[in-house]
Each structure stands twice: as C-alpha cells, then as structure tokens.
C-alpha cells in the first residue's frame, strides 16, 4: 500500500507517504508520540514540514489491525487521530480482507471490501485501491 500511495503522490508534489518508524506528535511536539503504520503528510512549496510531524497536519493515517488488541486500532487510535485533526483514518484488516475508513470525528465509518478511494484536496484523480487484488498480492 505504501508503494502504491507513494506512486500516486509523487507526481502531485503535495503529499508524502511515510511508513513506521516515523513519528507524529501532538501539542508541543515533545510528548504523546504516535507512529501510525503509514501516513501521508503535506508538502508545501516542495518542502516537507519539520520532523516530527504534527498529528493535526496528517492527511491520512493507516493502521494494520493488531491481532492482539484490535480495540487499540478501531477505537483508541481512531479517536486520538480524528480528535487531533487527521483528515482520514483507515484500519486495514488482512484477516477480514477489509479496510475500515473514517472521514472525521462524526463519521460513523464504513467497512470496504471492494475498493477504497482517497485523494489530496486539489488532485485531479483519486488514489484507487482495488481491495481484492491488493489483499491477494499482499497476502501471497
């Protein structure tokens, strides 16, 4: 997924995909460090924001569901990310072959099994991920 998002973002020059370990921080940038499995941060005038990234700047945060504690990804991290302004949050569930998506704090969310789309605000075309093919390839 990271490689596909990076390929989508590169010609646009307005966002950059990162994978863990890469930090995002809340507030004063010294406490409450989180490491989404993958995220997209903004790029302005060809430059990335200072590292570590501010959580509220993230355009997309993605977690692969923890088999030990799924509540962490589906509830705790979702609430944290969306409360602090992350634009969109996904939880990838390889066992169910689905992606859960939330687009803001008040969004009840949805489970997607066929395709997921996401785009930067001014992008002409969205990033489209066909989920059956993606999971077939990823889980091979």
What is the tally of beta strands? 11
Question: CATH homologous superfamily - what is it?
Answer: tt1808, chain A
Total domain modules: 1
At the first level of CATH, the class is: Alpha Beta
What best-fitting shape do the alpha-carbon axes yield? globular
Adjacency order of strands in the biggest sheet? 1-4-6-7-8-9
Class from helix and strand fractions? alpha+beta
Largest sheet: 6 strands, mixed
Question: What can be said about this structure in brief?
Answer:
Helix content is 21%, strand content 32%. The chain has 140 residues and is an alpha+beta fold.
Write up this protein.
It is a single chain. By secondary structure, this protein is α+β, with helices and mostly antiparallel strands. The protein has a single domain (2-138), classed as Alpha-Beta Complex (tt1808, chain A). It contains 3 helices and 11 strands. The chain has helices spanning 2-9, 70-83, 131-138, and strands spanning 15-19, 24-26, 31-34, 38-42, 53-54, 60-64, 89-93, 98-102, 110-112, 115-118, 127-130. It has a 6-stranded mixed beta sheet with strand order 1-4-6-7-8-9. Strand 2 and strand 3 form a beta hairpin. The chain starts with a helix and ends with a helix.
């Amino acid at each position: 997924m990271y490689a596909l998002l990076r390929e989508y973002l590169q010609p646009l020059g307005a966002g950059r995909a990162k994978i863990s370990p890469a930090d995002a921080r809340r507030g004063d940038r010294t406490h409450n460090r989180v490491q989404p499995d993958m995220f997209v941060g903004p790029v302005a005038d060809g430059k990335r924001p200072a590292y570590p990234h501010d959580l509220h700047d993230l355009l997309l945060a993605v977690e692969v569901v923890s088999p030990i504690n799924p509540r962490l990804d589906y509830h705790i991290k979702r609430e944290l990310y969306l409360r602090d302004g992350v634009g969109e949050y996904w939880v990838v569930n390889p066992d169910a072959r689905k992606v859960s998506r939330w687009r803001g704090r008040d969004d009840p969310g949805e489970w997607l099994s066929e395709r997921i789309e996401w785009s930067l605000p001014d992008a002409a075309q969205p990033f489209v991920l066909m989920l059956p093919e993606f999971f077939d390839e990823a889980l091979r």
